[in-house]
Amino acid sequence: MKKGRLISFKIILSVIGVLVILTGVFWNYVTLFSIQLIVIASGIVILLLTFLWDWRQRRKEADFANDICETVDMLMEGREPENYIPYEDSQVSKVQGKLLQYYEHMREGQRQSKQDKQIIQELVSDISHQVKTPIANIQMFTDILQQHSLTDEKRAEFLATMTVQINKLDFLMQSLIKMSRLETGTFTLHMEVESLYNTIAYAVNSIWVKARQKNIQIDVKCDSKVMVKHDVKWTAEALGNILDNAVKYTPEGGSICVQVRPWQFYTRIDISDTGIGIASEHYNDVFKRFYRTQKAVSMDGVGLGLYLARGIVTRQNGYISVKSEIGKGTVFSVFLLS
Amino acid sequence: MDIITVHNLKKYFGEGFCQVKALDGINLSIEKGKFTAIVGASGSGKTTLMNTIGGLYEPTEGEVFVDGINLAELSEKQLTIFRRRKVGYVFQDYNLVPELTIQENILFPLMLDDSRPDKMFFSEITKLLGLSDKLNRFPHMLSGGGQQCTAIARALITKPSIILADEPTGSFDAKTSQNVAGLLKIITETFHQTLIMITHNLELAQLADRVIKLQDGRIVE
Prior knowledge:
The complex is a heterodimer.
Chain A: H1 2-25, H2 32-76, H3 91-147, H4 152-184, E1 192-195, H5 196-213, E2 217-221, E3 227-230, H6 232-249, E4 255-262, E5 266-273, H7 305-315, E6 319-325, E7 329-337
Parallel strand pairs in A: 2-4
Antiparallel strand pairs in A: 1-3, 4-5, 5-7, 6-7
Chain B: E1 2-13, E2 20-31, E3 35-40, H1 46-53, E4 61-66, E5 69-70, H2 76-86, E6 87-90, H3 102-112, H4 119-128, H5 144-156, E7 162-166, H6 174-190, E8 194-198, H7 202-205, E9 210-215, E10 218-219
């Protein structure tokens, strides 16, 4: 319809143009009066067409604005827009498409925040669960220490047990603080081009004693020249957590290997162990907060290490993948942007 | 929430004795914002499934809904616009225009849609994909990985909701494959896009939130 009008516009203007040209060509044969008439008529027609064009342009703009307003109104009321013809080749449809995309983003945000609320509730119950046992232990030993007369030896033994429980609480507290900083995004990453070798050395240092106690051999294959843009402190923390996990689930006399391979876009750090392994259906689970496999329940720990490791690596635009064979060992691969 | 729903999808090529059942009754829903990997042997129907979802093939039977809209109800012209605005494609062989610079190649889809580029977004994705300093070069001056990154940027520039990647790392060695797939994963996560990637490589499939295995045109998850 609109196209038809445009064509008639064109035809009228073309006819006027042709008339004016013909008048010029046959100037000598045309009377002055006819020329006068043609000029006046052309002028009037052009003027009318200009008004019409202007009016139609305004109408078009108003229609466009109305269509968009209608869409926004419906979206605000949470209804599907009725006047939306998807994927039509028009400006209105283009803007409506974008508005719907934006609306979906908002809705996704709402869903996310709802989900977050639920996660926080679960978190609170998880934390209270984690805190309960050490506190109960401490309470029990405090009672015993207060109410019974004990030998110095026994007293020292109970105090040592209490210290273990207090350390456990402290560890949980530290992990929670890190987690909260990670989740609220309040920690700032100091991304610098630094030697990865040193970062790995920090990480290995943190588990060295534990590994020696279990007679686990640690092998690091990393060129000291490998430079990667990363946050040394947090990356060491992430790698340390993965290594700590490896030490925990590797039986005595086993081995752990850290291998670094610089690639074009990523630098790959493989941390392999000869531990108990993870079933493939739990590959994703191990990175979840407070997740612990059946076999891990008896071990020390709260189930935050790998969750933190993944968070730290992801914040640096890297990622972690895992490959494992039950009873043979696990390889965690950390990919950092080169 | 599902962005793509496929009901009893069948796609046959040829007729009678020569008929090939590329897809033989696929039922599938794909969640918004997730990374789905499609794996399977050659000829199992991976590409056909992806192309049908992307509106490139018309199904023989069954329906494909994208964001609640049945693709069968769209006219040819609407389908073209659907592909232009809703979907970003990444192919194995990049399909870059050799005569255009990297920047022009990336902005090409916007030119088709007569849209203005979002400068911030452009610089953000080119930076993430390591192309910032190569914008004035021509495709042949870049490595395979670099060219594929250009193709990824081109797929992203229109901010589509869905990225369809058909063996984007098919011609690369293991290292570059991990690199490119990792970048695709990160970038689609950053911009909340749904990524569907066909791959032969099971190690790459591990990056995905969900792996769909196809065999003889059927899902064997």
